Amino acid sequence: MSTDDQAPSTLFSTMPSTKPDATDARPKPGKIFLVGLGPGDIDQMTARARTAIAAADVAIGYRTYLRLITQLLEGKEVIERGMAEEIDRCGEAVALARQGRVVALVSSGDVGVFGMAGPLYEVLLAQGWTRDSGITVEVVPGITAASACASLVGAPLTHDFCAISLSDMLTPWTVIAARLEAAARADFVTVFYNPKSSRRPDQIREAQAIFLRHRSPTTPVAIVHAAYRPRQSVDLTTLADMLDRDIGMTSAVILGNRSSLVQAGIMLTPRGYAHKYDIIDGQPRPGESPRASLSSGLDGWRNALTTLATEQGIQQAAATLGANPTHVLETLRDSGSASPAVVRKPSASALLDEALAWHGATLHLPSSAGSGATLAALDLTGVARGDRAGLLTLSGVGWTLELPWKNVAAAYRVLDRHRVCAWLQGPEGDTLLRIEGAL
Ligand SMILES: C[S@@+](CC[C@H](N)C(=O)[O-])C[C@H]1O[C@@H](n2cnc3c(N)ncnc32)[C@H](O)[C@@H]1O
Fold it and tell me: Burial level of 18, CB count in 10 A (0-12/13-18/19+)?
C-alpha cells in the first residue's frame, strides 16, 4: 500500500472538475469506467475506450499509462499514481464515484488481464457494493499484451495458449511454479507477463528450467518489448538461449509449443489444418472430412481407447494415450464396452471386501513416477483388514498399507476375459490401489 495516499500525485488538471452541484443534497450516483488502453499506441485503443475516457471527468491510473494517452485527457482531472498503489487507486476511484463523479480507471492492455478490474471489484465487494446500489461500473476491454505482442511476431497463439504472470509480488511461488509445470507439461503456448524486473531477476530463470524439462531447447521463443510503444523491439530466440536476451518490465515472452516454428522471420503455431488437409491443394486427407471432427478427435480417441484396453489392458491403454486412469475407466464405463466391462461401485469398502475374496488376488500400488509395487499375496483373504479413524489398513506378512478413506473418490470393478479388478481412485483421477484376481 502506498505511503503517500493522503497526497495523490495529481499531475495535471486542465479544467475545473465537474463536481456535483453543492446545492444538491443527494449527489447523483457516479460511474467507474474500467478502461483497457491496449498496448500503448492510441491507434490500438478501442472506440469504446476512447468514448469512455471522453465521458469521464476524472482519470486515474499508473503514470506511465496515463502519459500514453495525454491527448485524450484534456479538460479532465488526472490523478497519477505510482506502481504498487493499485488498491489506493481503486479506493480513490470508488470515493470519487460515490461523490457522483464519472471516473476512468485505466490499465494498459486489457483492464481485466492482470489489470485494475479485479482489485476494483474486490474493493467494491468488500464495501458491500451490489449492481443496484449506486455506483455503476463498466468494464471496457482492450487488446492485451499477448495479442499485441503476438501480432508483431507472426501467429504464435493460433493454438491453445495460456498467460502466466511471473510476478510473485502477490502470488506465492508454489502457485506460479505449479502453473508453469502444468502449462509446460500440457504443451500450451505460454505467454509470460511480468517476466523480470530488477527486484525479480530469478523467476524467469526458474520458469525456463521448468519448461526445459518438458520442451526441446530449440523451442521458439519471442521476446517482445514495449509493443506499440516508441521503444518497441522484437527478438526471436529459443528456449535455451532466451536468458541471454534483454527481458524487462515492459517485455512479454511468448514460448512456443512443440509444433511452433520460425520461418521467414515469422513465429507460427499451426492450428492443425495440416492434420486434415493437404495445405497446398486444400484437399482433405484420407479418412478426414471437412464437416466432421478429426479422425483422432474425441470419437476416434474413444474408439482407440476401447480397442487398446481390450487388446493390451487398461493400464497400457492409459499409458499409450497419456490419459488419466479415472478418465479411462469412466470412458469405458460410458461406452458400455462388454470387455473390459467397467462398473462404478457406490461403496469402495464393499468392493474391497469382495476383492479380498478373489482367488489369487494381487495388490498393485502405483507410484507417481510410473513405477509400481505389486504385492503378490497368494491369498489376500488372509490379509488383515482394519478400519479405524477413517483409515483403511491392510496388513500382510511384513507389510502394512494405510489409506485414508477420505482420499478415495471413486471405486470401479473391471471385468475382462481373464481377470477381475478393483480400482480405487483418488480425487485427482490417480489410481490409489488396484486389486486383481480371478472370480
Ligand atoms: C501488470 S501486467 C498488465 C497487463 C495488461 N493489463 C495487459 O492486458 O496487457 C504488465 C505486464 O504486461 C506486459 N505488457 C503490457 N504491455 C506491454 C507491451 N506494450 N509490450 C510488451 N509487454 C507488455 C508486460 O509483461 C508487463 O510486465
Answer: middle
CA angle 64, 68, 71 (to 5 degrees): 135
Specify whether 385 is located in the same domain as 309: yes
Residue, of 164 and 87, whose pLDDT is higher: 164
pLDDT digits (tens, 9 = 90+) for 12-33: 443 434 444 445 555 577 999 9
Pairing status of strand 102-107 against strand 58-62: parallel
Q: Are residues 308 and 428 in the same domain?
A: yes
3-state secondary structure of 260: coil
pLDDT digits (tens, 9 = 90+) for 346-395: 999 999 999 999 998 999 998 777 788 888 877 787 889 999 889 999 99
250, 251, 254: which to mutate for ligand 1, most atoms within 8 A of CB? 250
In this structure, the answer to whether residues 177 and 219 fall within a common structural domain is yes
Cα(391) to ligand 1 centroid in Å equals 49
Are 305 and 432 contained in the same domain?
yes
208 lines ligand 1 (CB under 6 A): no
Q: For residue 226, give the ligand 1 atom closest to its CA.
A: 20
End-to-end alpha carbon distance in the chain: 67
Q: Whose CA is nearest to atom 7 of ligand 1?
A: 109
| 144 Cβ closer than 6 Å to some ligand 1 atom | yes
214 lies in some domain: yes
Say yes or no: 323 and 256 in one domain. Answer: no
* Ligand 1 pocket, residue 40 CB under 6 Å: yes
Going from the Cα of 273 to the center of ligand 1, the distance in angstroms, rounded, reads: 31
Q: Which domain holds residue 328?
A: 298-438
Cα of 243 to ligand 1 centre, how many Å? Answer: 19
- Does a structural domain hold residue 61? yes
Taking the centre of ligand 1 as the mean of its atom positions, its distance from the CA of residue 16, in whole angstroms, is 33
Q: Read off the pLDDT of residues 288-326 as tens digits, 9 standing for 90 and up.
A: 998 899 998 999 998 999 899 888 888 888 888 888 889
Helices 325-335 and 298-312: crossing angle in degrees, nearest 10, is: 100
User: 134 and 88 share a domain?
Assistant: yes
CA of 232, closest atom in ligand 1: 20
Three cell numbers, residue 225: 518489448
DSSP one-letter code for 243: G
The enclosing domain of 62 has a CATH number of: 3.40.1010.10
